[in-house]
Structure formats: C-alpha cells, structure tokens
Amino acid sequence: xxxxxxxxxxxxxxxxxxxxxxxxxxxxxxxxxxxxxxxxxxxxxxxxxxxxxxxxxxxxxxxxxxxxxxxxxxxxxxxxxxxxxxxxxxxxxxxxxxxxxxxxxxxxxxxxxxxxxxxxxxxxxxxxxxxxxxxxxxxxxxxxxxxxxxxxxxxxxxxxxxxxxxxxxxxxxxxxxxxxxxxxxxxxxxxxxxxxxxxxxxxxxxxxxxxxxxxxxxxxxxxxxxxxxxxxxxx
Length: 235
Hints:
Layout: H1 2-6, H2 12-25, H3 31-35, H4 41-55, H5 59-67, H6 73-85, H7 91-100, H8 107-113, H9 120-130, H10 151-160, H11 171-178, H12 183-194, H13 203-215, H14 219-230
C-alpha cells in the first residue's frame, strides 16, 4: 500500500479520492461504531498521516492549473474540484468559459457561487449583453426546464439562485424569471426579491409582482408571491 502512496505519477482523480477519504476520516462522530469494522484509532491516525502527505504535495497546484486551461469538460471539472479542495479561487477560469459559450456553459453555476460584491456588477453587466432574456419571459407555465430548448432558462436559474446575496441587484433578471414558463425560474426570482428590503421596492417592482400573482398558474408559486407582497415568510 505504501508503494501506491509513494508513486509520483498520481493524477487529479487520485487527489480527489484522497481528499474524500481525508474528509471521511475527519468526521467527528461514529468512530466507536466503526472500530468494530476495523477503523481502529492507530489505523486511522496512520491513514490520516498518509492522506495529509499526499494532499500537501506541490504537484497538485501545477496539475490543476493545467486542467483549468483544458477544453475538455471532464478534465476541467477535476481541476475545479481539486482547486475547491485547496481553497483556490477559480472565478477567472469560469468566467473565461462563460464568455466563450454564454448560452450553454455550465460554468455559470460556479461563477456565480464564487462571485462577491466586487464582482457581481461585472457578471450582471456581461450577462445582460449576451443573454436573450426576451426568449425566457414568455409567460408562466408548468415547465420543468429540461432539454436543449431550455438552455437559456437554466442559465438564468444559475444567476437567479445567487442573487439573494446581492439585494437590489439584478432586477432585469428577476423580472424575466417572474415571467418564465419554468417554475424554478419563478421561485428563484421570488427568493432573490425576498432579500430586498420591502420598503426599498420601487413602484414598478410592486406592480409587476402583483401582475405576476394574478396570472400565476401554480398554487404554491402564487402563495409565495402573496407572502412576498405581504412581507411575510416564504416558507
């Protein structure tokens, strides 16, 4: 076993496996029960030390940097997950992929997840210039948003799901989501708008939410719109 850990040709998939094992061994509870399955304290300490040794190798940063420059989605994903384990910011890499394929890139999810107050305006300004939001705002329905015809709706969803962290930002996307045929888009718009201070709503916002409630076909979404207008909890 030690010969395997000492190998110098390990790749990012090996690193991610070690990282998962390392997290498992860091669990604070349950070891009394696991000891009967062979997870003795000395054995766990020894394996933890091996994992820490592999985890700390400098080669991983070089490998993940190369992976983040790859055009292969699987290779890029491994690099991104490895960077996440090492607390390395990959915002620039995801923004690069989003700029290359704004309508279809899955990098919108991780881009928004890593976006903060210093970056949100840049992301939203870019999104406004490249996303045909009029193709989303076709009216409420009961769509799940699956399949290639809903690629833009999924992209909007990835933007909306993080807007609750940025009150008073992204109204154009929220408004579009409220008029989407995809139920999740509408719910994510409601979640984002719920983070806005109710007293800060411009008249346009109140009017559009009221109209959205009037034409909403789903009972649960209509209930959430009512709670939003009344300033009550969405749950």
